[in-house]
Amino acid sequence: MRWNSPAILVGGAATVAAAVTLTVVAWPDATPPDRSAPAGSTTAPPDGPRSEASSARSDTRPAAPTPSGSGALSKAPNVVPSVRKFEAARGPGWRPSGGSAVVIAKNSGQLADEGQLLAKELKIDYRGAVAAGAGDIELALESGKQAGPESYTLTTRDGRVRIAGPDEAGVFYGTRTVKQSVRADGAIPEGVVQDQPDRPQRGLNLDIARKYYTAGWIENRLREMADLKLNQLGLHFSDDQGFRIASDTHPEVVSQQHLTKAEVRGIIALAGRLHIDIIPEIDSPGHLGAVMAPHPELQLRNVNGQHTRGAIDISQPAAAKIVDDLLREYDTLFPGPYWHIGADEYQALVVSDPEASFPQLAAAAKKKYGANAKVQDLATGWMNDRAAVVLPKKKQIQAWNDGFFAGGVVKADQNLQVDYWTGKEIGARPPLDYLREGRKVVNLNDEFLYYVLGQPNDFVYPTGQRIYEQWTPLVLRGTTPVPQKYSKQILGARFAVWGDIANAQTPAQVAAGIQLPLAAMSQKVWNPVKPSLTWPQFKALATKVSG
Q: What sequence ranges are listed for the domain Glycoside hydrolase family 20 catalytic (predicted)?
């Protein structure tokens, strides 16, 4: 990301308001909602991002769970994201009391962390592996009854709650539903929730290279993400402006403000307890300014001897060595299943004739890949080679879409996942090009999901309202969805924060600015149906459950 990102046209929506209803309405992924921006004033906090629309009036707020003795059918819990399926029942539901406790079912001892956290949040006892009694919440691992590892069933009946799932992650998400429902309404409604995410990858991408964030700030974001049932945090920690994690192999590249490895291990440990995978990213062969600052001999220069911003000379073996040293070092630090190798915006490929401008790259391409090879082939080979460094540990490798070129004699490894952010960069192609190749794609649409500090290059801070009303995972570029038949290839989405103008906002302002956009995105990647709440209702609920 993205110093030469071109202008983005951001349009609003103004259509006829839909009637308020709590009925779940089927909404195919490929069809954005036809809804209006609700009426309400907009105010801007001092020095902060543009605010969302005003909160809902009290007469339009979602209904609370059925009170004891009413005899009416219950309504689904008020949570963000909304649950996928709810079987209503008559009864008082469950609310925490002095005698309530969290307990762990037989053969479910792995859920101790989840149980202790929920008990602390609800301010009730944790009793561990004992039989559930009146007023208790029981957590259980049960295989074979749910659709996937992140699914869960939450049953509220006879004054007790039971959360069961095939894996710890699903049970954890059930505890998030309990926490939010109690926060919103003081209770869990009587009935049965059956829930699971629509997309397997759901998260936040954070540029800590251009703007430094403390470990504590990052950990607070992890806690907020977990409550929204998000499961990925991308850490872009190397760029032209900074390298933000301590290094043993190349300490000379590390910025003065950086995270220690102990701090990173703490972040990784917390993320693990919250069922969030960390995706580390060392972007190359572009965006390597901080790495090259103490190694100017590796700087890419054109035929006239002029250096090219952020670009390393990939014709030099020493260039591959320093990047691979770092990849291997941090591959050990980050034990998760994902790695991001960047590959975007290599400036050698934005000129009209790369072979004439960079003859050393052209010669290296021909030497390695044959007489018909060009600079783009050398760049593609670089991407494949960097992926091969971390593949032995069976990582799932991701790269930015503008690093995948059409034609050429070298093809990008078919197993690389595409993080689609733009169709406007040199080398970038429309989303369908990648999908037709059979590639798996993660949505980071720069129209809706890019929070670029300072709003350069016509970027505009995205709002939760716009994501909630106009975006779905199928909207990969601009505002137009790809055909529904490609839905299974779109693995999910991440909301991205980029530090292009690092001092444009304080860390506190960034945290406040991304809160509602993250909530709106979480709704769309978890539950594929058209939301039943209006934006003011959703905003009021999201604000309440995040308190």
A: 202-527
Residues 6+ apart with CB under 8 A from 215: 259, 263, 264, 266, 267
- Helical pair 375-390 and 317-333, crossing angle rounded to 10 deg: 30
Token pair listed for 221: 């974001």
202 forms beta bridges with 493
Contact 544, 183 (CB under 8 A): yes
pTM, 2 dp: 0.88
What is the DSSP annotation of 231-292? -EEEEEEESSS-B-B--SS-GGG--SS-B-HHHHHHHHHHHHHTT-EEEEEEEESSS-HHHH
**Tens digit of each residue's pLDDT (9 = 90 or more) over 475-534:** 999 999 999 999 999 999 999 999 999 999 999 999 999 999 999 999 999 999 999 999
Q: Report CA-CA distances (Å) from 88 to 134, 191, 196, 301.
A: 21, 5, 18, 67
**Contact (Cβ atoms closer than 8 angstroms) between residue 73 and residue 88:** yes
Burial of 12 (0-12, 13-18, 19+ CB in 10 A): exposed
Residue from 52, 138, 168, 345 carrying the catalytic annotation: 345
What's the half-sphere exposure (Cβ side, CA atoms, 13 Å) at 293? Answer: 16
**Cross-strand partners of 322:** none
Domains located in the chain, CATH noted: 85-195 (3.30.379.10), 201-531 (3.20.20.80)
Give Cβ neighbours of residue 353 (< 8 Å, ≥ 6 apart): none
Question: What span, in angstroms and rounded, lies between the C-alpha atoms of 493 and 234?
Answer: 11
Annotation says 345 is catalytic? yes
Q: What is the DSSP letter of 491?
A: E
| Helices 215-227 and 261-273, axial angle in degrees (round to 10) | 10
- Tokens matching residue 518: 């993250």
On whether the CB atoms of residues 525 and 492 are closer than 8 A, the answer is yes
**What are the backbone angles phi and psi of residue 485, rounded to the nearest 5°?**
-65, -15
The shares of helix, strand and coil residues in the chain, as percent rounded to the nearest 5, are 35, 20, 45
Coil vs helix vs strand at 308? strand
330: tokens are 């941090």
* Distance (Å, whole) CA 127 – CA 140: 14
Residue 276 contacts residue 203 (beta carbons within 8 Å):
yes
47: Cβ contacts below 8 Å, ≥ 6 apart: 505, 506, 509
Peptide bond preceding 81: is omega within 30 degrees of 0, i.e. cis?
Answer: yes
